[in-house]
Amino acid sequence: MTQTTAQQTRSGRRVRPLRVDDLTVRFGGLVALDHVSFTVEPGSIHALIGPNGAGKSTCFNAISGVYRIAEGRITLGEIDLTKTRAHRLAGLGIGRAFQSLSLSPTSTVFDNVMLGRHSLTAGGFLSYGLRAPWTSRSARRHGERVTEICEFLGITRYLRTPAGALPYGDQKRVDIARALAVEPTLLMLDEPAAGMSAGETADMARLIQDVRDELGVSVLLVEHDMGLVMGIADRVTVLDFGRLIADDVPAAVQSSPAVIHAYLGNEDSAGDAGGEPGREAG
Ligand SMILES: Nc1ncnc2c1ncn2[C@@H]1O[C@H](COP(=O)(O)OP(=O)(O)OP(=O)(O)O)[C@@H](O)[C@H]1O
């Protein structure tokens, strides 16, 4: 596992472990997550996988404060996220990019990424939007940082282009740029390679590694592409029907009988978790 020595991001924020402890989420009578525990170590790439309906999105939404949890605790270092509302996450150092793009298609790439800065902008989003004069110096500083982040993502040529006009893979990058614009210590990626070609997926894998290695940011991702997951993850947590069935390094997860059974439904026909799943891999 690659870890920044001082456990700091390049932007100087302290990187803390994300601890999911005994997490249970219920929807009426359905137990979507059943006493799930795992830790995302600082400076690691941690994948959350499992067949359809396993509880991955529920877990993401519980960490993000979107879903109310029934039992358990979620902490980022000493900060208790259990009762934290979704809109406070950015300020606490968690950036999230979404499975379905949530960009404003008519706004420029620059403005979309700048939206991610509002949690850090003294005057808040409203002042930025109104271009209040007393915030012009800080707006310039934030603008420079937005440009730097877009350079890192390789999308500076699109800064003045409406986000909706970009190819799909580049729109994904804008979404990640916006999540990085909050200067996170933890980046949550919801199916970053969904809908991508093999070449775009390989580029995305490199980008995620660069986020960890160059920015020092921990990454928690949900992803269906097993090649990407097993190629870049330091640790893999596997859910099935809301229960944790494996939490280990990729090689151990790939050869786990419980994981093979969950994906293939039949150990005898097992290859590995990267094989042809009975249910869609995720
Ligand atoms: N808002 C909700 N209300 C009721 N049930 C829900 C809700 N969200 C998820 N569920 C149920 O919780 C279980 C876990 O769903 P979840 O979406 O977390 O799985 P997933 O692993 O993300 O699946 P997929 O790979 O298909 O996205 C499923 O049975 C699902 O139907």
Describe the protein.
By secondary structure, the chain is an alpha/beta fold. The protein has 2 domains: 1-93 and 186-196 and 218-282, P-loop containing nucleotide triphosphate hydrolases (Rossmann fold); 102-182, no CATH class. It contains 10 helices and 10 strands. The chain has helices at residues 56-63, 89-92, 109-115, 124-130, 136-153, 168-180, 198-215, 226-232, 250-254, 257-264, and strands at 18-27, 30-40, 45-49, 71-76, 79-80, 94-97, 186-190, 218-222, 235-240, 243-248. Strands 6-7-8-3-9-10 form a 6-stranded mixed β-sheet, sandwiched between helices. A 4-stranded antiparallel β-sheet has the order 2-1-4-5, covered by helices on one side. Strand 1 (18-27) and strand 2 (30-40) form a beta hairpin. The longest helix is centred in the middle third of the chain and has 18 residues, at 136-153. It is globular and about 55 Å long. Mean pLDDT is 86; it is low at 1-6 and 266-278. Residues 27, 30, 32, 50, 52-58, 282 line the site of adenosine-5'-triphosphate. Keywords: ATP-binding, Nucleotide-binding, Transport. InterPro entries: AAA+_ATPase, ABC_AA/LPS_Transport, ABC_transporter-like_ATP-bd, BCA_ABC_TP_C, P-loop_NTPase. One of its GO terms (molecular function) is ATP binding. Residues 18-266 form the ABC transporter domain.
